[in-house]
Write a structure and sequence with these properties.
binds zinc ion, 16 helices, eight-stranded parallel sheet, binds adenine, 14% strand, TIM Barrel
Length: 333
């Protein structure tokens, strides 16, 4: 059994919903500050609800908690807290997902959200040397026209974004619905990624690749059900941003011991380890690294390989990648 500490292993986080870092304590503090009535009476009561049966049971609570995020300062505080924790856990680069439609439908301006998050990223860069950017996610269970309108609303400031993604309830909302939206995003020079194969079938992963032309697949764990798809992902070195603790907490995988991560590595896939919604799933990124290191008995070489994949799969430039890869190669447990 390995007990390697991976905290100091340099890594990139590529699958992190910033709203999923909203800890119950911050929910209550922001509710008080903003004069918002909550349906929960205490931090303990709210945290007690964090036992999920599937993706939707989590999403219901995730969207409810966001009501406390009102001002640019609130978004900066949220992202600042995450980035400090991430830096403590060895994160050197973080590409943050955010869900603007979950805020604009509550009357919050999209610029308020983006400006707050960008301010936190700038502060983290100067204080901790951590680099990063924003990936705007469309809610796939909302109308396609809303996604297109959201994209057009940021077209003039697309340089403030790294890319776009696709999240929320997956089954019944195939990537094919969003072909025109992703085409427009690519036209704006944005990187493109999508959640696929978390609860949805391998067919959704094929659609994300062939129709949305994504550069990474978020989750993708169900890809292993389709050998031809595995071959495609391997051949084209399409990275998968896997979130082990999330898969267990949402019931996609019975326990960490049963996680497909070793099989994915064995199959020659570019697999990365990420935290998804750490406030809800019981751990930030290094909690995910250390949990898989223990449960799956990964050695230092395998852990360095996963960290190197995270850098390779990132949207950093070639020089920044080379610097981080050299640090990872030099890392010893
Ligand atoms: N794991 C996940 N899957 C889909 N949508 C999400 N939104 C936040 N976390 C998500
Ligand atoms: Zn996710």
């Amino acid at each position: 059994m390995t007990h390697i500490s991976t905290r100091s292993l340099p890594k990139a986080e590529l699958h992190l919903h910033i709203e999923g870092t909203l800890e119950p304590e911050m929910v209550f503090a922001l509710a008080e500050k903003n004069g918002i009535a909550l349906p929960w009476s205490s931090v303990e009561e709210l945290r007690g609800l964090y036992s999920f049966t599937d993706l939707q049971s989590f999403l219901d609570l995730y969207y409810a908690g966001m009501a406390v995020l009102q001002t640019e300062d609130d978004f900066a505080e949220l992202a600042g807290a995450y980035l400090r924790r991430a830096a403590e856990q060895g994160v050197r680069h973080a590409e943050l997902f955010f869900d603007p439609q979950a805020h604009t439908t509550r009357g919050i301006a999209i610029d308020t959200v983006i400006d707050g998050l960008l301010r936190a990223l700038a502060t983290a860069r100067s204080e901790n040397g951590i680099t990063g950017g924003l990936i705007l996610c469309f809610l796939r269970d909302q109308p396609v026209a809303d996604a297109m309108a959201t994209l057009e609303s940021v077209a003039a400031r697309s340089a403030d974004l790294l890319g776009v993604g696709l999240d929320s309830a997956e089954v019944g909302y195939p990537p094919s619905l969003f072909e025109a939206v992703f085409s427009r995003a690519r036209e704006l020079g944005l990187h493109v990624v999508a959640h696929a194969g978390e609860e949805g079938p391998p067919e959704y992963v094929w659609e994300a690749l062939d129709l949305l032309k994504v550069e990474r697949i978020d989750h993708g764990v169900r890809s292993l059900e389709d050998p031809l798809l595995v071959e495609r992902l391997r051949r084209d070195r399409i990275p998968l941003t896997v979130c082990p603790l999330s898969n267990v907490r949402l019931g996609g995988v019975a326990s960490l011991d049963d996680h497909a991560l070793p099989a994915m590595l064995e199959a020659g896939l570019v697999v990365t380890v990420n935290s998804d919604d750490p406030a809800y799933f019981g751990g930030y990124i290094d909690d995910n690294y250390s949990a898989v290191a223990r449960a799956l008995d990964l050695d230092a070489e395998q852990l360095r390989a996963v960290a190197a994949f995270s850098v390779e799969a990132s949207f950093l430039g070639a020089d920044a990648k080379a610097t981080l890869l050299a640090e990872i190669a030099a890392w010893t447990a």
